[in-house]
Amino acid sequence: MIIPAVAILIWLMRKDFIRFKEKSELEEYRAEKKWMRRFMLATRILIFSFLIIALASPFAVKTITLPGDALVTLLVDNSTSMSMFNLTEIESLQKELKKEMPVSLRYISTDDKSAIGDALLNNMQGNDNILVISDGNNNDGRNLGDMLVFASSLNSTINAFDIKPIQNDAAVSISGQSEVLVDTDNSFAVDVDVIGDVGEYSLKAWVDGKEVMSKKSSKSISEVIITELPEGYHKIKAEIDSDDFIKENNIFYKTVNVLPKPNVAFISKNSAAPMWQIVGRSYKGELFDYVPNLERFHAIIIDDFSFPELKQDLPKLEKYVEEGNGIVFVGGKNSYDKGGYKDTELEQILPSRVGYGALNAGSKLNVVVVIDVSLSTGISFGSGSSNTKVDIEKSIAVGVINSLRPKDNAGVIAFNWDAYVVSELSPMYEKPYLNRTISKLQYVGGTRIFTGLQKALAMLRFKEGSRNVVLISDGRHSDTNADRHTINYAASLAEEGIKLYTIGVGKDTNEELMKQLAETGKGAYYKPSEFDRLEIVFGRARGNESKANELIVVEPNHFITQNINLSGYLSGFNFVLPKSSARVLVSTAENNPIITSWRYGLGMVISMSTDDGFAWSGDMFNKHNSKIITRMINYAVGDPERKKEFYVKVEDTRVNAETQILVFSKKLPSYKGYNFTKTDTDTYETAFKSSSAGFNEFAGTIIAVNYPKEYKPLGFNPELESLISVTGGKIFGLDETENLIEKIKNDSKREVTEPVYLRWPFVIAAIAALLTEIFVRMIRRYQKA
Asked: Does domain 261-358+541-639 have CATH number 3.40.50.880?
């Protein structure tokens, strides 16, 4: 407003608004006019400028520290596991706290359910202090880590006491597969966890009532049972005889369903192939040199056939896989690029197409790294680690960026509640300081992964070449509805032809979500130690020329490749490239796909672009590597029971925990005490719950019911300190009440920012300028007089 005000003043000052009675007065006025006009213009500009500035209400920000309300909510865990601790000092603790501040005492959790996360959500008000007395073992309701992040967003501080168990206890458990194939060695781990000094205890295990283990110990142990089991359901039981506190967790039950060998057709003209030896030994395998009637087979393997040899059987093969069966296409000197597959109806069924050169090797590469910098990443990476999750995330991000070539395009996005562009998508040679920028990222706020994916989609949508997103996160959302939105954005990326690769960071990573995002986004899920495999995915070959044909597991967390470390080389392979929605599981070091899979209709199709072990791929069939062949066939087989008219699926459960029984039947099942709901074609569902531990039977299916989760893990949760640190909280000893009180008082102090308006100094300056003008004019008149 100052500029137009000055313009108006200049115009007014050039006008004469004074009427003079005598000519002498007019001449006198004109003599003074030039000096006075300049002087008055200057003073009036100052006056109006000061008034306009005052009207704009300038202010300074002042921070005031208020003492706040030093009050505390005391949450006492009342679940069964807390009976192992001495809680007699709670009353005296409450009295000590009440001397200094108001205290609200509330008991949380009951019986065998420790819903600590729910209790925090129900009791925190924001800007408050909560003191938790619990072992920190959350086994029901909302995730404890998520609720602590939410508490931080509300400025609620959570403190806890380090309570020590006064009772000694031992708990036994059994882990292992619930379904296995007949005639295979099956291993089951029997674990005993010990808290305190229980003295010497005896451990015994039985399989179908036959004792298979007897051992004595006085500390935590893990033992393995290896056994061969015939077809059908089998009962495994482990029991410890110990003078300990909780007796319910001294027995553990497990069931295993041993399935008959699935029917597999091996269609080949080479009966000496190493792959046929595996099929004949591990499955009900039948050898054919033509495509037979396929109805009774769970999966078929087509070994090195050309397109002309399969052309007449294509309708039969397509119908077979669409109905939910599996096909494995094995390469060789008569198939794929050497068998006329290119641009044929057969190639449409395959997850790969004939093509030369490694994937992405010559194409333009675009990579956007999306980093989680929410508060939950400020938690420790894991027990015994001095690094936080965000430290590891930044290290991985730098590793991914450094694996790219100077001409590759890279972008970086950080997200918490919202997403922020750290670096726009541009060639690497333009980003000499990107690593330093990533290292300076700070964690704050809640978690909404979809905001990061949304911005990555916008960044990549119209780019040419290979487009990829690398998401680095613990997968833990602050918003319970965010998982669904995030999966939708992963699907949007896939629809645009953008692949999503996820890396889960932290012991508490939500692997289920991160894997689902990778699968939906047509990418792969990696653990922190596996991210370097992205070099292969992006066509950035490892090693030197002599290792070009080395076998590499590209996606290590798939059913086929999980816990398998391949070693060896190929002497030959067929040249193929994966289709956009296929998954490359194994490749060479030069990124030539070897095992690729995808879903076709209801079934699975797997492309193995090397031979059956007779000439090119001998290393894949040695004792160390051959497990991947059976995994690949098992994946194609799917559920071996699916061809039955009637079968049941149910998982082992816990006392008083509801689990679902799935019944696959051509008609509605009828069992006394059970109500069934139809959920899919020939699929029915009902609920099962038991109030006592042991083995239960349903329609020939055995269900194991075990002690509640409350009885394991035992003792004080060692992760609790790093979890509550997100809120600014600490773990205190029971003898540190004074330190706790001091901390609560300090945490109760609130800093408030207030505006301090600076209008009056400018108003006073305007008045001073006006008075100065009047004084000068009076002096001039006095002098003339």
From this structure: yes
